[in-house]
Amino acid sequence: MLHRESEVSGMLTAVLKALTRLVMVLALGAGSARAQAPEQWVEWGDRIHGGFGSLVALGIRIGLDASQRLGAQRRELIVDYTDGPNTPCACVVDGIAIAVSASLGQRTLRLAHARTEEGLLARVVFTHRSHGGSLSYEIPYEVLGLMQDINREEQAAGRFRAVMSIDPARLFRLAGNAGRN
Question: Measured between alpha carbons, how far is 175 from 114 in angstroms, rounded to an integer?
């Protein structure tokens, strides 16, 4: 009987150690949104937006780019989003919110009521909360056609991969000061 209790105790210890490692991996992974697999981005986009289209993927791409350029971790960026005059939906901002962990409730995500000038799908300004560096991303309206083509040709994870593989110069223009103000 004592031998059997020892075996059970050993198995429980092994299971607890494995669970501890799993919890640590998950906790560390949650801290770095940049290291996610395409399927994870798709899952998050589907949960937040209600589906995963190429515009959500574009938002993720822009959010990750801004985080890298501004040296920001999760929750360190304030996002000011403005739609273009003919933008049919603000799907891009959901992808941005996912990528940088911005939210209306935390006041790190602000949606403008005004619209940008003609020719833009959106303008997004990222400001680093600590050092004040900022970047403005302008998404040309022509990008919408490219995103619609991707939606017709690809499924969710393929949409993510397709958007991530496009030359950034075709997707957005940058302006601003990424350094400390």
Answer: 20
CB 113, CB 53: distance < 8 Å = no
Mutual orientation of helices 54-70 and 91-100 as an angle, nearest 10°? 40
CATH of domain 37-177: 3.30.1330.130
Q: Give tens-digit pLDDT for 55-66.
A: 999 999 999 999
Residue 21 has pLDDT above 50, yes or no: no
Q: Which residues contact 11 (CB under 8 A, 6 or more apart)?
A: none
